[in-house]
Amino acid sequence: MMVGQTALLLVLTLFSYWAGCRLHRRIPHMLMSPVFTSTLIVAGILWLTHTDYQTYRMANEPLTWLLGPAQVAMAVPLFRGWNLLKKHLSSVLSGVCGGTVSGMLTATLMGKILHLSTVTILSLAPKSATTPVAMLTSQAVGGVPELAALFAVLTGILGVVAGPVILRWMGIRNILFKGLALGTAGQMIGAARASKWGDAAAAMGIVGMSVTALLIGLFTPLLIRVFI
Amino acid sequence: MNGKKLPVWFVAVEILILFLVFLLGNAVVRLMKWPVPPGLLGMGILFILLATGKVRVHLFEVSSQFFVRHIVLLLLPAIVGVFRFWPVLKKEGWKLGLILVVSTITVLVATAGIARMTKAKGEEK
């Protein structure tokens, strides 16, 4: 019985993701992304069947294990973009550092000004890191991984929606910098969008994403000690 | 081994290797008490292996693409947990939304702006 339920709950995730992807292919809109639709399907079915979230989470532990290898695998795109990175090392590094730090500072300071709870701020701070890094980092400093995951995903979507408009408004024409900004602000989702501007932009997006993840993993604990 | 296409089951081997590298990163973080996320250290280890030519990038083709494309699947169980925080989101939703928008725009502007400012003179395109 228990084994059967565990397997079913795992299948539920796989099925919902598959359904979400199909739906997105049919209606290719940002809001129809599996991030939203599949989540709603899973939540709806859990609610209808009175299944406890903890039980669901335990059953889906195998998927969570894969987040580790997924992070390690980012070395591949980083390696591919390495030559581009080396060529533009100083501007890339200063851009990503400046962007990431200012993003973390605005989020933390605004959270303080708006009187958000410390736990919420700690879940917000690492939001421009790729979701697995954001989750693990936030957990390490005392935030809520689920909230961190949500904020990271929303940040990615916002970055993709606002990015092209803002960059055009700023008059940035260099596609390398455009890709870099999207990857830094919108991580994996941003880097995927940057690939529409070509391979070079995609590689820079991936570089932005990886360096951001690294910076956030390293500096969040420090930032927290200073501001919280 | 040198052919363009690796067999389908090889993905399992790829993921297993990636997992072992992750465990190695995890062990180092635990032992040395470094304040680095284990996954990132694992990424660094694999990067060094690739950069020094110890491992060929071709070996991780399929799995790295799979992870980039389907990361949402792996995150789904965690994202569903968001509904447990519904009261927080309902109460502070507008503040959170405002922070996300302002801070994401800040990141975009700062990254692209600083990158453009610091562009070395010799660099073109």
TrEMBL record, chain A:
**Membrane-crossing residues?**
6-23, 30-50, 62-79, 91-114, 147-168, 175-194, 200-224
Which Pfam families does the UniProt record give?
LrgB (PF04172)
Name where it's found: Membrane
- Record's bilayer topology term: Multi-pass membrane protein
Q: Does the keyword DNA-binding apply?
A: no
What is the top-level taxon of the source organism? Bacteria
InterPro entries the record matches? CidB/LrgB (IPR007300)
- The primary location reported for this protein is membrane
Q: Which UniProt keywords apply?
A: Membrane, Transmembrane, Transmembrane helix
Identification of the protein by name: LrgB family protein
Organism of origin is Polycladomyces subterraneus
From TrEMBL, chain B:
Q: Which species does the entry assign this protein to?
A: Polycladomyces subterraneus
Transmembrane residue ranges: 7-29, 35-55, 67-87, 93-115
Keywords from the UniProt entry: Cell membrane, Membrane, Transmembrane, Transmembrane helix
Higher taxonomy: Bacteria, Bacillati, Bacillota, Bacilli, Bacillales
Q: What are the subcellular locations of this protein?
A: Cell membrane
Asked whether the UniProt record includes Metal-binding among its keywords, one would answer: no
* Main location (coarse class): membrane
Question: Matching InterPro entries, A to Z?
Answer: LrgA/CidA
- Pfam families with a match to the protein in the record: LrgA
What is the protein name for this chain? CidA/LrgA family protein
This protein's membrane topology, according to the annotation, is: Multi-pass membrane protein
PANTHER family, alphabetically? Answer: HOLIN-LIKE PROTEIN CIDA, HOLIN-LIKE PROTEIN CIDA-RELATED
